[in-house]
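Service request form, structural biology core

Requester: graduate student, group of Dr. S.
Request type: structure prediction, single chain
Budget code: on file
Notes: please return the result as structure tokens.

Sequence provided:
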Amino acid sequence: MTEMRRIAATVIGGFLGAGKTTLINQWLRAPSSARVMVLVNDFGALNIDAELIVSRNGDTLALTNGCICCQMGGDLTQALIRVLDSTQPLDELWIEASGVSDPGRIARLIGAVPEFDLGGVIVVVDALAIASHIQDPMLRDTLLAQILAADCLLLTKTDSADAAQLTSVKAFLHDCHPHALCLDADQSGSLTAQIKDMQIFSPVAKVWMPNPGHERRFSAWMGLPTLTLSVAEWQKRLGALPQQVLRLKGFVRSLEHGWSRVQLAGSRCNILPSEMPPTAGESLVAIALRGSLPREALDGLLA
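Core staff response, request fulfilled:
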């Protein structure tokens, strides 16, 4: 009897702004003959680098390397069925979990489907922000659930952290989950290939924490800006937002770039040219803890 060909699956988790999409974009740029489908489960729009995109059909992107990227939506089971029903032969499935969700829950569901071969869970950790985030009682359970779900913990922003910070962060992660492999995203140009090697994942059974229920802890705001402002003015407005805004991303128009992609995480804000305008036009999505979303300030951003 011919053995069933299984699709290698990897789950990528991590808190808001940690760098999950950056990692996926690096993978997609790396030379490979593998046919990949990427499922993205997030509050905001797909954020794959525009130069990688050949065409867009609704919530699905066709990429230059023959890969596919899809918006997962709210039903992971239906998304996995779409993957299995795909007419295009697939070698790998990458799932980017929402920044406020438990990637372990996704991994458990994939592990129960015989057509998938679960390689493991990568959790991206912001080396600059984790120390302050973990002190917040409203965020701590979410962050611990993500860390404990990981086979591999990938530290980002390490080039902006000092040695004492990195030592402290690595010690904390080791205390939380001593069996997870911990890598520095900035340590080597070959990391992309290293982390894509399924052999990195530890076979050690992990302690799974219950899903903390991100839909009860977080709320989202969406705005449709019609303004065209300079990058400096957009930076000024975004910089004036209250700290309750944990994450903001989307598209606006700037005088310098025309279509521009906005990424705001904590105190870091980037506004970069976007070669392909989003299907839905200008849109911004912000995330905050439920009950602390500063809607008036966010509405004022677009006034």
